Amino acid sequence: MNLLLSLTVFCLLPLALMAKENLPLNCIPRRSVPYHRDNARFFSENDVYNYSTMLLIEDKGVLMLGAREKVYALDLYNISQKRASAAWEATPAKKTECKNKGKNAETECLNYIRILHEVGDDRMYVCGTNAFDPECKYVSFSGDALTFEKEMEDGKGKCPFDPFQRYASIMAGDDLYSATSMNFLGSEPVLIRSSGNIRTEFKSSWLNEPTFVSMAQMQESKESESGDDDKVYLFFSETAVECDCYNKLVVSRVARVCKGDLGGLRTLQKKWTTFLKARIDCPVLESQLPYIIRDAYRWCDPEKDWKSCIFYTVFTAQLDTSDLSAVCAYRVSDISRVFAEGKYKTPVPVETSFVKWVMYSGEVPIPRPGACINNAARKAGIHKTLDLPDRTLQFVKDKPLMDQVIQPIGDKPLLVRRGATFTQIIVNQMKAADGNKYPVMFIGTDKGTVLKAVNYDGEMFIIEEVQIFHPRQPIKILKFSNITIQDVHGQLYAGSDTGVAQIPLATCERSSSCMDCVLARDPYCGWNSALGKCVFISKSHREIIQSLKVGDASLCPDADPIKPLNLSVREGEDLKLSCLPLSSLGKIMWQKNNIDLTPSAALQLQDGLLIQNVSLSDAGHYRCLSVEHSRAKKHSITVIEHLVTIDLSDSGDRTLDTQAQTDCASVTGLQVACALLGLAFFALLAWNFYKGHLCMPWSCFKSKSEEQSQESQNQEALHSGVSYQAAPREEKSVVISSNSNNNQH
Ligand SMILES: *[C@@H]1O[C@H](CO)[C@@H](O)[C@H](O)[C@H]1NC(C)=O
Ligand SMILES: *[C@@H]1O[C@H](CO)[C@@H](O)[C@H](O)[C@H]1NC(C)=O
Ligand SMILES: *[C@@H]1O[C@H](CO)[C@@H](O)[C@H](O)[C@H]1NC(C)=O
Ligand SMILES: *[C@@H]1O[C@H](CO)[C@@H](O)[C@H](O)[C@H]1NC(C)=O
Ligand SMILES: *[C@@H]1O[C@H](CO)[C@@H](O)[C@H](O)[C@H]1NC(C)=O
Hints:
Blueprint: H1 3-18, E1 31-33, E2 41-43, E3 53-57, E4 62-67, E5 70-75, E6 82-87, H2 92-100, E7 113-118, E8 123-128, E9 135-142, E10 145-148, E11 153-154, E12 168-172, E13 175-181, E14 189-193, E15 198-199, E16 211-218, E17 231-239, E18 250-258, E19 276-280, E20 292-299, E21 310-316, E22 324-331, H3 332-341, E23 345-349, E24 355-359, H4 375-379, H5 390-398, E25 415-418, E26 422-431, E27 437-445, E28 449-456, E29 459-467, E30 477-485, E31 488-495, E32 500-504, H6 514-519, E33 525-528, E34 533-536, E35 544-545, E36 565-570, E37 575-578, E38 587-592, E39 595-596, E40 603-605, E41 608-611, E42 620-629, E43 634-647, H7 656-677, H8 698-718
Parallel strand pairs: 1-29, 36-43
Antiparallel strand pairs: 2-32, 3-4, 4-5, 5-6, 7-8, 8-9, 9-10, 9-11, 12-13, 13-14, 14-15, 16-17, 17-18, 18-19, 20-21, 21-22, 22-25, 23-24, 26-27, 27-28, 28-29, 30-31, 31-32, 33-34, 33-35, 37-41, 38-39, 38-42, 40-41, 42-43
The chain binds 2-acetamido-2-deoxy-beta-D-glucopyranose (NAG) (5 copies).
């Protein structure tokens, strides 16, 4: 694939978007790591699918995993090791009943585990779809066994009936908050709290054919001057009621309720009195249709209060009109302010059957509709929502939608990318060598890859994209743990329909040179000159070269000079010198006898240099440079050098075998270079009497061909002209670090 072409194609749209700000946009990952079984540790069992529910119990060192008709306890340190499992199948009677109601016996009439929450006293609360009749149970893990308790609870309103329907839930203290559909048909959406059975109204102005995405709680009562309450936020998309359009339009929403809500006394009895929602926008290009939210992750700095928390979200196109995905981030404080101070929307009948939603500009009752009970309300004698006056309740019942649309930080996405659709996002904060903390985004895609990206002062940088699942599977869930394995602090767990994978937050050894390590701009990694290795950053390591914000590798020690490879070519033949750039952001440049080669002098190909009909004047010293621009400067890194001599001997007198052997021998040296340098060049030249007959060291050849086939498969997903190729390298141990993690979702 032509790098330039790919760059043009894939950068075009986002570039157009960013052109205004004149920001460099690295819309392709600097490194694309093709599938390799060593990329991750895996777990799956035969005939078990849909590994999409996870619960981390770090103090016990287990990852609880919910799949179809099965619950597992896996070793958090090595998920390939199963500590225990327990089956929970829908009974044959249930399955028959489900089938008789017209559902598919193979795909729908099974028990999909959907809810897994810790409830204290060493028990967990588990719910499953149970062949379209959701049930919940308690399960405990002790010793090395998972034990289900006998009693079942009705799972209606907690867990969806339909395994294909999205839902959201969290356990806050002893209260289960869930957003799902309450009935068999999936037509009664609710946000419900188990204690008190407080729920949303069945009204299209509250929830209108929603798709629930995610939920998070926020401790807004902590040190609150106004005596505010804690809140639960819900992200979803739904059919817009407020739109003046003929067709259905789906919009993204954030809603919130107050934890202390007990419902109203007469109006809104057993219903939320604090349910307010607002549209959230993630403006991608000049898109006509709004993009739709697919996942949201609450990220908080553990050293700061809730106002610093940020929701990171992924959005994709509404219809399949575009293959762009975007990441937008929202300040919780911005969202909170809209609910606390913003204007409401109100329905106005326009024609007999048509209702228009406009900004409400009339008088707003006191206490403010939808507000949590705060000091001001308490002063007025209102201590709980049951005390709220009907006027306030009726207002919020009719007008739960805010007028203002919530915009992301900076009024634009943090990242826009074409290709593999984003499905999940999770953010981890890393304290880098410069003492600054960087939020690092891990984004799952529908092609089974995970992207790692950081926004450096407005510049989006995708460090790498790693193919984790093969064959490709959409990533359905992502979780973190802060455990340390081989001095790498933090692990990421990804679930798909076919299995689960565990990857370290960073694999610094992928960079084998200082230049590559620094240009990778990975907050977790730095070059340790003493060890001569790219290592996981640790407090105990002071002498680390890292340049995250600008990618300046000039502090790197001079690389060892590369020994040129000797090459003898017969006059009149073609000469191909292979060379791949160091990264997807690098471009190849050739020099001959220290002078830049102009394209006319030889054919410069994506993966090398081709000189046809070699003549005496083509002899010389060829150098291949990988030129990579970072914010700081242009870096030219020598990848390979060739000393080409022209063999004038009679070309009629061919001795194939010897020639082949000679070539092989000369290339074998490269195998060593390959291993030593670990550079991303694998395509090796071989010159022969027969064009195209390549003779290569076996291992390199094999990797290259695997890489190529992998790459062609992955091109759609990885969008890069080159793939990163792991050089044969031993496992290296790296240095300990401690970073602050945030593991709550
Ligand atoms: C993880 O566990 C599996 C299964 O027991 C084992 O084969 C593998 O070697 C372990 N991996 C590591 C890195 O310990
Ligand atoms: C469960 O996994 C199977 C196998 O990959 C897949 O075909 C099916 O769509 C999945 N079901 C759900 C509800 O996600
Ligand atoms: C991991 O994080 C949890 C909180 O999420 C904390 O309680 C635990 O001590 C941390 N473990 C380590 C090894 O840092
Ligand atoms: C290449 O040839 C030069 C002399 O022309 C010699 O000094 C050098 O050692 C050779 N290099 C290799 C790698 O064989
Ligand atoms: C190769 O170059 C020689 C001398 O420069 C020329 O005579 C010959 O025609 C060329 N052959 C081809 C196939 O271009």
